[in-house]
Amino acid sequence: MPDDAEFSKSGWSFVALFRFEQTNQDGKKVFFNFQEVPASTSKEILSIFRQHSDLIEFYDEPEPNKPANDGILDLTAEGKLFSGERFVANTSSRGWLTIKHEDGLTQPNVIPYALKVKLDQIKDGREYFTILEGPLAGHKASVKLADDGKSYLSPEILHAPASFLTYSKKNQTLTLDINGVKTDYLIIMSNEDPIPNGKYDLEIPYEPHHLYGEPYENFSLYAKTWFRIGHTGDRYLHLGEVSKGCITVRAGDNKPGAWDEIYRRLIVSRMGDSMNVGTLLVLD
User: Which of 80, 59, 90, 101 is nearest to 154 (CA)?
Assistant: First the structure.
């Protein structure tokens, strides 16, 4: 976090100067000295600060010093600076958040729901962060704050344990096992390029698949989100009615909402390796 950071909301502006004091294993204490702030009440100023920096968890709301004659208020508030680790919590209805790359990349210009990032700073109405997982891990990006000043990123951990799926070639079914509760889905697989038997990783989604996903959005808003099978080649787990080597969850023959169920489980699942949501076992 920078030594000073500027925040503004509804015409207010101030500079927060930070100094750190080691306290215990829970974290560090930090004192925020707000200088050159228009005279107002403590609650109003703290409310403005909260809207622009979810890095801070305030212990209390101490009384401000009395305003100077020129209308300038010096306010000191005590809080705890906690980890910058965040999760993409607010996205479009299709599960992707539009971002701006800050390190030379241009595409993809979206990241998926539940992706873990590290919040680096909030400046000029944007949140700047480092992507911590998936194919874009290590890259820098930013996102504009919402119109109401709220963040698209949440400190709440959204991840669940890894998911385990089994594809049976004989039955042409995909089985999703969640804590011993198994659900089967009908799939279609290419006879010309069938996937070899074995165990495969399922990757965190990298980008939306517009061309072959969009035609199935009447079945699921998440039809463009595909999960790569393994780490090379172009085999994916996805919704549709055509397979060119992918494991395709049939859009028309499964119960309504079938892909929504699979998506909602996989998108938050993690293997703990910063790359995969789970594994797929392929059997005869």
Answer: 90
Kind plus residue range of the DSSP H or E element containing 31? strand 27-38
* CA gap 91, 75 in Å, rounded: 35
* Residue type at position 127: E
Model confidence pLDDT, tens digit, residues 209-251: 999 999 999 999 999 999 999 999 999 999 999 999 999 999 9
Instruction: Render pLDDT for 177-191 as a digit per residue (tens, 0 to 9).
Output: 988 899 999 999 998
Which single residue is written with the structure tokens 């390029």?
A: 193
> Shortest CA distance to 237 belongs to which of 77, 43, 92, 269?
269
Nearest by Cα to 271 from 163, 194, 185: 163
Do 225 and 98 contact (CB within 8 A), yes or no? Answer: no
| Nearest to 168, CA basis, from 192, 149, 148, 185 | 185
